[in-house]
Amino acid sequence: IDVAEQSLQAMEKISSAGKEHAAVCMRAGGVQAVLSFLDFFQTGVQRVAVKTASNMLACVSSKQDVTMIKDALPILVNLLSYGDDKIVEHAFLGLTRALSGMCLCMNGFRKTDSMVD
User: Fold this and answer.
1) Taking the CA of residue 68 as centre, how many other CA atoms within 13 Å lie in the half-sphere pointing to its CB?
2) SS3 state of residue 48
3) HSE on the CB side for 101, CA within 13 Å?
4) Which residues contact 43 (CB under 8 A, 6 or more apart)?
5) Residue 42: predicted pLDDT
6) Which residues contact 117 (CB under 8 A, 6 or more apart)?
7) Is 65 helix (H, G, I), strand (E, B) or coil?
8) Within its chain, how far is the Cα of 70 from the centroid?
9) How far is it, in rounded angstroms, from Cα 87 to Cα 102?
10) Average pLDDT for 4-26
11) In this structure, what DSSP letter does residue 85 have?
C-alpha cells in the first residue's frame, strides 16, 4: 500500500501542476484509477485521491472525456454522503467540474449541429 499511497501523492502533484497535466492524467484513465481502491486507504490518503480526481475532472472538454470519466461519477455521488467533510467537498467539486465540462461539450455540439442545418 505504501507504493499506492506514493503514487497517489505523485498523481496529486501532477494534476495540480496545470490543466494540461491534469488532462493527460484524466485521458489515461486517472480518475477511475485514483478512486478505485479508496476503501483500502486511511482518510488522509482518501482525501488526496478525491482531490486528485477533482483536479482531473476540471479538464472534461469533449465527448471522449465524458466517456472516459462516466464510470467514476457514481463513486463521487456516493462520496457525497461520506463522513469526512474534506472528502465530501472534493467529491462535490469534482462533480461540479465534470458537469460543467459536460454542459460546455453539449453546448458546443448543439452549436455545431445548428451550423450544419
Assistant:
1) 23
2) helix
3) 25
4) 84, 87
5) 95
6) none
7) helix
8) 10
9) 22
10) 94
11) H
Q: How far apart are CA 7 and CA 32, in angstroms?
A: 14
- Residue 2 CB coordination number (10 Å): 6
| Residue 70: DSSP 8-state | G
Decide: 31 and 72 in contact? Cβ < 8 Å.
Answer: yes
CB 66: neighbour CB atoms within 10 A? 16
CA dihedral 22, 55, 15, 4 (to 10 degrees): -120
Q: What is the mean pLDDT of the chain?
A: 90
Predicted confidence (pLDDT) per residue in 29-48, tens digit: 999 999 998 999 999 999 99
Cell numbers found for residue 103: 454542459
Would you say 79 and 40 are in contact if contact means Cβ atoms under 8 Å apart? no
Question: Is 43:62 a contact under the CB 8 Å cutoff?
Answer: no
Please tell me the distance from the alpha carbon of residue 60 to that of residue 41, in angstroms, as a whole number.
Answer: 26
Provide the 10 A C-beta neighbour count for residue 89.
16
Cα distance between residue 21 and residue 94, in whole Å:
16
- Find the length of the chain: 117
